[in-house]
Amino acid sequence: MRFYLFIVSLLILSLVSCSDGNRCYDSVDTLMVTSFSINGSEQIKSLIIKGVDRNDLGDTLVNDQDSTLTKRYPLPLSLSADSTGFVVEVNGVKDTLFIRHSMIIHLISENCGFAPDYVISGLRHTAGIDSVRITDTKVNPQSIEKNTNDQNISIYFSSAAHQ
Hints:
The protein is mainly β. The protein has one helix and ten strands, in the order αββββββββββ. The chain has one domain. The chain is about 10% helix and about 45% strand. The longest helix has 16 residues, at about 1-15. It is elongated.
């Protein structure tokens, strides 16, 4: 009888102790929203994005083989350096993009913890990338909520190099 009483009291205590008050409902993922397109009417048939010096299979950030005129992806920025490099392979042609940024860690909430906020301060790229337009220098957890026409940066590839 004592055993059953003990089990019932444990069940009651476990049900009472469950509370939604300790959950995190805010995003702590900070991703830079990036669009990719080829100048002109060429389609991006394949897009592979990796971090610089990250050639392992699990280090691929994007591997998209669908054809489209413009592709849009959220990409992570470095937590440990003031720049982030990406190797971008479009239609079999590899290019490199480096993004300079500063970072500040801020408290989201007691339950969610901390998240980084970035400010993009510049970039450089290889010759296959025609141009890069920075449309929003601030990258924070709310960046991922941008509508389909907004992004942090837009990358344009020259059509002659990526056919």
